[in-house]
From TrEMBL:
Protein species of origin: Gallibacterium melopsittaci
Keyword Cytoplasm found: no
Protein name: C4-dicarboxylate transporter DctA
Annotated keywords: Membrane, Transmembrane, Transmembrane helix, Transport
Lineage, highest ranks first: Bacteria, Pseudomonadati, Pseudomonadota, Gammaproteobacteria, Pasteurellales
Gene, per the UniProt record: dctA
Signal peptide range in chain numbering: none
Highest taxon in the source lineage: Bacteria
């Protein structure tokens, strides 16, 4: 098999786009912000086909299961894993915040902060509760699930459709074959759109650097640096241990998804690589039925990067405003954050809304302190999105191994071909 020259590889093209975007954003910021539509257009192109891909993959995955008990087993194991990992991530961020102490020395009086810029987040947080969250999962119409772009609503209608198709049995075979064929068309669309990844990454990173400037990072350099070290440690320690238990090399896995990681680095969004990661996990040895359930639901329930950010940000705000957090308050904080991190799924600006919701429920730490980190959210958001993606891939592997359906021979073959 002839290997493509490195300059034709997608990861290399995306990397060049990112570097060119950073340079242009730094040296010509006023001109750079005009490239924002390139990044927005690329994200919209991918978002356009995410719904159909999730639907087709889940329906084919469920309808291909031997019985409905397998669906319950996969879903149950996934939820258990999601909640355990969420708690670990929240605790990890809390402990790291105490070690690094990024907010010490700020001595900010919350009463002096202008909170007008937080309105859209605080309003969204007040509206987030478990009842509304559950009701929003149910779309008004079948087509409404796709037009709304709510991943959980798409997940619901897909599971219902897949279960019904499975129960019908042989009579539903033509429908199954049709949806399976349609899924191949949509995945081919992904490959076509992916050729524009370098342009999308260039537009997004150019605008970010041009609009916010690298100088905006200086006042909070300790927080940003500490947060990225936290992300790296979490990936190496936690994901490394989990991967080792599953018999998978973390380094090989990260190398395998390097293109997706670079696309997120450029665009700042993990949603744009949802179709890519689902396809790659299947090539890695995870069954389609597991991928179909674990990965889309993980985008709402398995946000480990976001959880790390939440607790470290809260510790930062508490330290910056000289707010004392007792051990009891911190334990309550973990419990509340576990709930708010799930209840805000699918909300615009989810990470910030999750953080706001937690501070509103636990009013020990002033919500006004969020103004301190609002300006650098775009920069740290890229890092947490990368960790979220890595974590969802690991989750699919864990559930596949736990369900004794992981194809190790296919994994070895795929990774050896990559090398």
């Amino acid at each position: 098999m002839n290997k493509k020259p490195f300059y034709k590889e997608l990861y290399f093209q995306v990397l060049i786009g990112i570097l060119a975007g950073i340079a242009l954003g730094y040296f010509a910021p006023e001109f750079a912000v005009k490239f924002k539509p390139l990044g927005d257009a690329f994200i919209k192109l991918i978002a356009m086909i995410i719904g159909p891909i999730i639907f087709c993959t889940i329906v084919v995955g469920i309808a291909g299961m031997k019985d409905m008990r397998e669906l319950g087993q996969v879903g149950g194991k996934a939820l258990i894993y999601f909640f355990v990992m969420s708690f670990i991530a929240l605790a990890f961020g809390l402990i790291w915040g105490h070690i690094v102490q990024p907010g010490i020395g700020f001595n900010v009086d919350p009463a002096t902060l202008n909170t007008s810029s937080l309105t859209k987040y605080t309003d969204g947080a007040k509206n987030v509760n478990l009842t509304d969250f559950a009701m929003n999962i149910i779309p008004s119409t079948f087509a409404g699930a796709f037009s709304s772009g709510n991943v959980l609503a798409i997940l619901l209608v897909s599971i219902l459709f897949g279960c019904s198709l499975s129960v019908i049995g042989e009579k539903g075979k033509p429908v199954y074959n049709f949806i399976d064929s349609v899924s191949k068309v949509f995945f081919h669309n992904v490959h076509l759109i992916s050729k524009l990844s370098s342009i999308g990454a260039f537009g997004a990173i150019t605008y970010t650097i041009g609009a916010y400037g690298l100088q905006s990072l200086i006042p909070l350099a300790k927080f940003i640096l500490g947060f990225y070290v936290l992300l790296i440690l979490f990936v190496i320690i936690v994901y490394g241990i989990i991967a080792k238990i599953c018999g998978v090399s973390l380094i090989s896995y990260l190398r395998f998804i390097k293109e997706e990681l670079l696309i997120i680095l450029g665009t700042g969004s993990s949603s744009v690589v949802l179709p890519h990661i689902m396809e790659k996990l299947e090539r890695l040895g995870c069954p389609k039925s597991v991928i179909a359930l674990v990965v889309p639901s993980g985008y709402s329930f398995n946000l480990n990067g976001t959880n790390l950010y939440m607790t470290m940000a809260i510790i930062f705000i508490a330290q910056a405003t000289n707010t004392d957090l007792s051990l009891t308050n911190q334990i309550i904080l973990l419990v509340v954050a576990m709930l708010t991190s799930k209840g805000a799924a699918g909300v615009t600006g989810a990470a910030f809304v999750m953080l706001t919701s937690t501070l509103i429920v636990l009013p020990v730490v002033p919500v006004a302190g969020m103004v301190l980190i609002l300006g650098i959210h775009r920069f740290v958001g890229t890092g947490l999105a990368i960790v979220n993606l890595i974590g969802n891939g690991i989750a699919a592997i864990v559930v596949s191994v736990w369900n004794k359906s992981f194809n190790r021979e296919l994994m070895k073959k795929t990774l050896s071909e990559e090398l």
